[in-house]
Amino acid sequence: MTHMSRIEAVKTARLRPLRSAAVCWCLQAILAVLGGGQARAETGYDGWLRYAPIEPALRDRFASVPRRLVLLGDSPVLRTARDETVRGLTSMLGEPVVSQASRGGEAVILLGVLDRVRASVDDPAMPSQLRADGFWLGRVATRQGPALVVAGQSDRGVLYGAFALLRRIAMHADAGQLDDREEPSASIRWVNHWDNLDGTIERGYAGRSIFFDNGRVVQDLTRVRDYARLLSSVGINGLTINNVNANPQVITDAFLPQLARVADVLRPWGISLSVSIDFSSPTKIGGLDTFDPLDPRVAAFWKDRVDAIYRAVPDLGGVVLKADSEGRLGPSAYGRTHADAANVIARALAPRGGLIFYRGFVYDHLMDWRNPKNDRARAAYDNFHALDGQFDANVVVQIKHGPIDFQVREPPSPLFGALPNTNKVIELQITQEYLGQQRHVCFIVPMWKRVLDFDLQVKGTGTPVKSFVSGRLFGRRDAGFVGVSNIGRDVNWLGHDLAMANLYGFGRLAWNPDLPSREIAEEWTKLTFNDKPLVVEVTVGILLESWPTYEQYTGPLGAGTLTDIIGVHYGPGIESSERNGWGQWHRANGTGIGMDRTAATGTGFVSQYSPAVAAMLESRASTPEELLLFFHHVPYTYKLRSGETVIQYIYNSHYQGAMNAAAFVERWRRLGPFIDPERFASVLAKLEYQAGHAIVWRDAVTSWFRWVSGIPDATGRRLPGRVEAESMTLDRFAVTAVTPWETASGAQAAVCAAGGLCVAHHRFQGTAGLYDIAVGYFDENDGEARYGVSVGARRIDSWVADGQFGSASPNGHTATRHTVRRVTLKPGDEIMVDVNTTPPDGGAFDYIEIVPARD
Ligand code: GCV
């Protein structure tokens, strides 16, 4: 064939129907579910609050749950508790559960605040008191008949108790013998949102804001209400609505009535609203020529604004402030301290009982990278520890869990142990900024627990991070957890159905940081899907292995995530960490890798921990190996405890991680007959994408380290069946170098820069048989490119690349794979990859990989 006639053949072939693996699996799943008699269509919108009807065979177990309910007392939160209980039980039990004003001798569910319940029920089983927000569930006998009691320390406690009862029944746990007393670990269990008033979300990966659009609060707050319901069900009691990179307009008189509307929607769910503020507001919206915290005019400004906010939102939780960080203005402009800055606002809030959350995330992003003593990890401690005791009683320092920035593996911030006289909360990130941005499954609860359980040995042993953030260790009331949620308008809130386990897990851990990861994953799976043994085994298995897997194919041994840190923080971009002021340095060079943070030869960061912990981290031998490169610079030939060298570990772990990600796909496929087709197909498509991107990561990281170290992979691993685009016969494609080079196979790609149809040809020379053909290509976000694969005149697949991976260039973010399964090939067959695109989308294509078909 001439080149032109090949292009014609491709055009003709495109007219034949599409056939893609995803479509096949989706159909199979639909048939399987119909066959299995399960018909409930699911979108993920209800999250873990689906209240799925209990199968008739199991209903007997819940015969003793009263079908009548009496609410003692009245308030918006109590009414929510009542309505939610009626809604949940009616749906699950398949018969009406009704609320009535008083008791008439029959068995009832009795909802109320503990003191009120005790006045009408005298049963020694009931606790005499509960800690803030706590509840008790139990069965008691009263003169007017038996009662299932949901008693709370406060109205909010009653609501949490109602949700706990519903959770129990939804998990099909016995409700006959109840005697549950629960109290949250800490008083602060908040979410933060990095939503901007224009409706965008910084580090949000699930659509636009549910709160804002076009400079205003949205008109329809239904989604806010339904989100509040999800939050409340896991004990969240505060919500900060806007980005910490705050727009000062949010506290102007013109905006406050809009905030009040949101607060009204949150209030019945026991959630108080808070706002992020801009420290330079006195100049930006106050007409002053200064924002010096010690200037009385500035103090008056903050008092005026705080009073105005409280007039609009009387139950405001407080404010959040990011100052002197990443370009945000702060007290350093006037030579003042963070305590000066926090206290001027705290004093305006104090009469109202409001809190100011002052973020500990303060660092210099213009640090000199050539100075080996410079270290961003030191910044939080260096900025704050000397100020301990100088903050007012209603200031809370909000500390990110690690000293850098939500990397795939970090030690805990030493600041937790260094502020005995200051209120503290831990900031955890639910949105997966550095953890695959909800395109990759990454269940973060085990990572959070690793940090919470880390013993800082501040008062001898037995002082894990969780003892500081619960406030118990230093007897502080205002302590707890803040999670950066960043849910969006996607119907399932976080984009990836499995990512909702992180929102759920955050709430559950904030309530009780001692809960095991497995228990949280099991609860979530049963509530979100169902309790069929295979569903629980597969889903929980994937969740629990997902963070270690993500770590395996991204940044090893505490080196940092190895992503493009000056771009969108998603795909591989190994050198982006170096030679700039951002301080996410891994210091990989020709001979070794890792940041030397020791006291003896490095930045001295280890000395910020207690002497016992510092001694452990000072030495390579006693540093936990998963954090080795966070604390030490070691040669590539350094031997790990397993006997493997560091460089070989990098190669092996990346291959292992990519294999695990591929296995997630196969494991999930087994669930087709057992869960709804919608979520089955949507998770499957995400896992397939992840498996491809894990290979992109594997190849980028292993190529880069082979190049930089000059040390080959001792296993001699090759990429069998890979044919580079640049070595194929190209029609209208031009070969171009990709940046960073390691993100393209062979460092180059074929680009269809002029647009229209471009075709690449390869003559197959292997043995006849069934093969899988993977196409490596780049899905840029500057348009739509149509890709197709043909064998001779046979069109075997086609698809559209219209993803939004945060980049318009071929690189580690946009690199992806599409696999055509079970293609019959014989020697001499011509394989063609064609791209049809309109500039500026380059329709870039990297390679094909032809490997024997999997069964
Ligand atoms: C809201 C990191 C993120 C920023 C974020 C910042 C912070 O740098 O990349 O998007 O800004 O942390 O937590 O303030």
Structural notes for this entry:
This protein is α/β, with parallel strands linked by helices. The protein is built from 21 helices and 29 strands. A hairpin with a 2-residue loop joins β4 and β5. Bound molecules: 4-O-methyl-alpha-D-glucopyranuronic acid. The site of 4-O-methyl-alpha-D-glucopyranuronic acid has 11 residues, from loops. 4-O-methyl-alpha-D-glucopyranuronic acid binds next to loops.
Give me a quick take on this structure.
The chain is of the alpha/beta class. Helix content is 31%, strand content 18%.
**Sequence of strands across the biggest β-sheet:** 7-10-11-12-13-14-15-16
Mean pLDDT, nearest integer?
A: 94
Judging from the principal axes of the Cα atoms, what is the shape?
globular
- List the ligand species: 4-O-methyl-alpha-D-glucopyranuronic acid
List the uncertain runs.
Answer: 1-39
Strand proportion: 15-25%
Largest sheet: 8 strands, parallel, barrel
* Residues in helices, as a percent range: 25-40%
Backbone structural class: alpha/beta
How many DSSP-defined strands? 29
Distance between the termini: 34 Å
Oligomeric grouping of the chains: single chain
- Our count of helices gives 21
Radius of gyration: 29 Å
Topology (SSEs and partners):
Elements: H1 3-14, H2 21-35, H3 56-59, E1 68-71, H4 76-93, E2 98-100, E3 108-113, H5 114-120, E4 135-142, E5 145-152, H6 155-170, E6 179-182, E7 188-192, E8 212-213, E9 216-217, H7 222-233, E10 238-240, H8 256-266, E11 272-277, H9 281-284, H10 296-312, E12 318-321, H11 338-349, E13 355-359, H12 379-384, E14 395-400, E15 423-429, H13 445-452, H14 465-469, E16 480-484, H15 500-511, H16 517-528, H17 533-553, E17 592-593, H18 611-618, H19 628-631, E18 634-635, H20 646-669, H21 677-709, E19 722-724, E20 729-731, E21 734-737, E22 748-751, E23 756-763, E24 769-778, E25 785-791, E26 794-801, E27 815-825, E28 830-837, E29 845-852
Parallel strand pairs: 1-2, 1-3, 3-5, 7-10, 7-16, 10-11, 11-12, 12-13, 13-14, 14-15, 15-16
Antiparallel strand pairs: 4-5, 4-6, 8-9, 17-18, 19-29, 20-23, 21-22, 23-28, 24-27, 24-29, 25-26, 25-28
Bound molecules: 4-O-methyl-alpha-D-glucopyranuronic acid (GCV).
